[in-house]
């Protein structure tokens, strides 16, 4: 079976083989809970510098997590794809990977062509205002501190019906 590039993955596919680097991993918590996790999330990057999110359900966490670590390159098989959820999308890919106890991870040595350690979807600061109120992909801000001011209470509404109080102390450009 030949390798599939991330850009060629679509929702609801099976029997694919990837050669990717796991560039980021994190555990998400259940909403409203301080001590219950909701599995493991990963960002994978391939040699074409495309990225995709992968998820492991909490029930599979103890079986899958010990087999992978961030920064390493793997040949991955026995997974399936689904639609990337618009509520917490972190990369602009239509598909998302789902790993379980059947998924195999074969660690590969550093190989050529090079697979980058990270993939960023940067937006020029002058275009950042176009991201306001868009919830199709989470947006990180990358910049430098231009000033510090006293804390002040702000109301922010990223999604309809949801209000979060944010304390603002830094100005970022």
UniProtKB/TrEMBL annotation:
- Which Gene3D superfamilies does UniProt cross-reference here? Nucleic acid-binding proteins
Question: Which Pfam families does the entry mention?
Answer: DUF223
Q: Which residues form the Replication protein A 70 kDa DNA-binding subunit B/D first OB fold domain?
A: 3-106
Q: Which domain of life is it from?
A: Eukaryota
Protein's name in the database: Uncharacterized protein LOC110755903 isoform X1
Query: Lineage of the source organism?
Result: Eukaryota, Viridiplantae, Streptophyta, Embryophyta, Tracheophyta
* Gene name as annotated: LOC110755903
